[in-house]
Amino acid sequence: MSTNTKTSHGMIFSALVVMALSAVGLTFLHLSTMMNNLAIFTVAFAMAALVFFQYMELKMEGKLIYWVMVIPCVLFAILVIMLIPDVCHYSVDFLKGL
Amino acid sequence: MEKSATVSLTAMNPGDQLPTGNYSGPAGLTPGRLGIWALISSEIVLFAGLFGSFILFRMIHPEWSEEARHLNLYAGTLNSLVLLVSNFFMMKASTSVKENRPDDVKKFLALTMLLGVAFLGVKAFEYSAEFAHGEFPSSGGFWSFYFLMTGIHATHILGGLFAMGLLLRRALNGTLGPTQQRVGLTGIYWSFVEVVWIFLFPMLYLLA
Questions:
Q1: Where in chain A are the domains?
Q2: Which of A23, A68, A76 sits opposite B52 (nearest CB)?
Q3: Which of A31, B78, B144, B194 is the most buried (most CB within 10 A)?
């Protein structure tokens, strides 16, 4: 078990370093705004998922902890939805490419 | 299980030591583990609110990308790597506790703390450079968000360092024994602080 844990932590650490450097490297590729932002957030979510499930061992927790984590996500969604009307009052260059 | 947990709690007298090891409460979790996840849940509300507001403001203020170019990308990248390595050492400390290797616990806790301090040092260097260029929290919307979010994150780093300092002192005195599960709990907190930076870094330094 200990060898597995060591290997697992080492592999996850390597993957996180590679992803962090990839995110920085992406900004030098001069992609379109939409693609650049999408790519760096995809990398960020992948890194966060690795840390949550592997380092924080969320994968081994029961349903209670998952529910505890769902509540802030719901609150976050409510906050974003409530702010969208404010944003829509402005011309959003970021969305023009869609 | 629920019944036995209730019995063990009511059987306690004032001054009794709290049960440790495999003790689990009515929820089937150690009290510390449930507590740390509840703390993280409330922290997610705090940071998600800030991140959500920042992204929406950023969308209606494209000129903020010009201000973001004044940030030191190399210092930010260095800090990302420092925090990744620091968290890796924290995980090694947690593993060392499970495998009953007290010397490794001390070593990895000290290394984690050292890198946490290094992170704050790099951040202080960045702040001083920004102040020298006349960028303050009152300089505009972007800078308000920047100093607020990085300041709150740095405060969390300080909190983690304080907790680790207490654990390291106990480990050095050889009194970590009954409270050794706190190393794992502090590891969960430290990982969360890393997750916050994982989002903070691209939002501030990398968004086009």
A1: 2-96
A2: A76
A3: B194
Q: Which of A2, A40, A64 is facing B202, going by the closest CB pair?
A: A40
For residue B169, how many other CB atoms are within 10 A of its CB?
12
- Domain B29-206: which CATH number of 1.20.120.80, 1.10.8.100, 1.25.40.10, 3.60.21.10: 1.20.120.80
Instruction: Give the CA angle between residues B116, A56, B91 to the nearest 5°.
Output: 50
pTM for the whole thing?
0.86
B162: Cβ–Cβ under 8 A, 6 or more apart, which residues?
Answer: none
- For residue B153, with 0-12 CB atoms within 10 Å meaning exposed, 13-18 middle and 19 or more buried, which class applies? buried
Q: Chain B residues with CB inside 8 Å of A22's CB?
A: none
| Phi, psi values for residue B26, rounded to 5° | -55, -30
Q: Do A71 and B41 touch (CB under 8 A)?
A: yes
ipTM of the complex, rounded to two decimals: 0.84
Q: Which of residues 139-198 of B touch A (CB under 8 A)?
A: 187-188, 191-192, 194-195, 198
| Mutation for testing the A interface, residue in B56, B119, B183 having most A CBs under 10 Å | B56
Q: How confident is the model at residue B53 (pLDDT cuts 50, 70, 90)?
A: confident
Q: Which one of A57, A71, A92 has the shortest CB-CB distance to B60?
A: A92
The helix or strand, by DSSP H or E, that contains position A5, with its residue range, turns out to be helix A2-26
Helix and strand numbers, DSSP H then E, in chain B: 7, 0
Quick check: B65 pLDDT over 60?
yes
> For chain B, which residues make up each domain, given as ranges?
29-206
How many CB pairs (< 8 A) connect A and B? 122
Greatest mean pLDDT range, A92-96, B100-104, B139-143, B191-195: B191-195
Task: Kindly indicate the confidence band of residue B32, based on its pLDDT and cuts at 50, 70 and 90.
Answer: confident
